[in-house]
Amino acid sequence: MSNYNWCHGPNCHTIQTQSRVRGSGDNKVLRTRKVKVYTGRSMFGNGGGTIWDYFCNHSCLMEYMAHHIQAVINIAPRSKALETPIKVEKEKYESERYDFGKEKRVPYMATRTTIKSVDNA
Ligand SMILES: [Zn+2]
Asked: CB 3.0 to 4.6 Å from 31: which of 22, 67, 88, 110, for a disulfide?
């Protein structure tokens, strides 16, 4: 398995940077950048497999997505909203705010809203 992929950005080979210039004399070209494949542990599992194994930068990723978004969506379409059961807890607590008229901090009752997970197991 190769340790590199070619960047999948559709216009990567047209961007004028020194890192893309290849060839010699009058036979120079702008070439798609090579992307090093990450082989360490990642949040997406062992042995790499991150999106940055295929794109040299954010711009190339976004151009690819703009060109292929419908095909990507068709892999796992979502026809209805997903929901996560939660509990919303509101609690009153004493806090302070600055009163500009009195030019000092004054106490008041504030409300803290907390979203809690519900264990479905
Ligand atoms: Zn690129």
From this structure: 22
